[in-house]
Design a protein that fits this description.
49% of the residues lie in helices and 20% in strands. The protein has 253 residues and is of the alpha+beta class. It has two domains: 67 residues; 163 residues, no CATH class. It has a four-stranded antiparallel β-sheet with strand order 1-2-3-4. β1 and β2 form a beta hairpin. The chain is elongated, with a radius of gyration of 44 Å. Bound molecules: zinc ion. The site of zinc ion has 8 residues, from loops.
Length: 253
């Protein structure tokens, strides 16, 4: 009885083991044959692709480059952009046509063309002399240009050309008159052509020579403070003498 039981257990175990082995080996064969089939299919596809690539190499490369532009092409585009920038003068904006009537009314003796020529010469002189590197005695405008040059350029500004000088704007309020000119110019900086732009700010100020002189109305004695007024603001008397006002270059940037 006891022996029969043990025999039965061993037999069951043996049967289980055999069937499991058979089952596993069947799966194995199936997997192998499946793997071989898949492998053959993949290999065939790969051969077809490689064959196509080999036969159409030029076209494939072109298509690839159109989707992924090369670094070389990219650099070339940047260089072309830089070349265009080097040869294109900086744009200037001018409100001259808008403010010209008001300016002629306020300052009939102001000659814009003379002022522009003066600024063109001043700018060229500054660039050619590398910010007045070798000049000892400078006037106020030259000193201003010198500090502008020094704040912008550390290296020589050679072969300068001024493209244009325009009246950018004319601003007027109760206390102040401002004229703003702009100029576009180019120069060689360490052999490379460079385009740039400058703004000149003129203020209508008391002549420095008369800054310490006080002016009073010839009729009532009231102090004359307003901008180049030829009429007393207190009594209305016309003034034949008064503080001399001049356009003063106050800032460049
Ligand atoms: Zn007066």
């Amino acid at each position: 009885m006891q022996i029969n039981k043990i025999y039965l257990i061993i037999l069951s175990f043996y049967i289980f083991k055999q069937s499991a082995a058979t089952f596993l080996s069947r799966i194995n064969i199936y997997a192998l044959s499946l793997g071989r089939t898949v492998g053959i299919i993949l290999l065939s596809i790969l051969i077809v692709i490689l064959g196509y690539l080999a036969l159409n190499l030029g076209r494939v490369i072109r298509a690839f480059r159109s989707v992924f532009p090369s670094l070389k092409d990219f650099k070339k585009e940047i260089e072309q952009g830089e070349e265009i920038a080097q040869n294109t003068p900086k744009s200037l904006s001018s409100l001259e046509s808008v403010v010209t009537d008001q300016l002629a009314q306020d300052f009939p003796e102001l000659h814009l063309d003379e002022r522009k020529n003066h600024l063109r010469d001043l700018l060229l002189e500054t660039l050619k002399s590398n910010g007045y590197a070798n000049i000892d005695e400078l006037n106020d405008e030259q000193k201003l240009m010198r500090s502008w040059w020094r704040s912008k350029y550390k290296v020589d500004t050679e072969a300068p050309i001024v493209h244009a000088v325009v009246l950018h704007n004319y601003l007027r309020d109760k206390a102040r008159r401002t004229l703003i000119f702009q100029a576009s110019f180019q120069f060689l900086r360490e052999g490379t052509k460079t385009q740039d732009r400058i703004s000149f700010y003129y203020l209508y100020l008391l002549d420095p020579a008369e800054r310490n002189t006080s002016w009073n109305c010839q009729q009532c004695g009231a102090p004359i403070t307003s901008l180049g007024e030829k009429v007393c603001t207190y009594c209305g008397a016309a003034q034949t003498a008064g503080p001399e006002m001049i356009w003063t270059l106050a800032e460049v940037k």
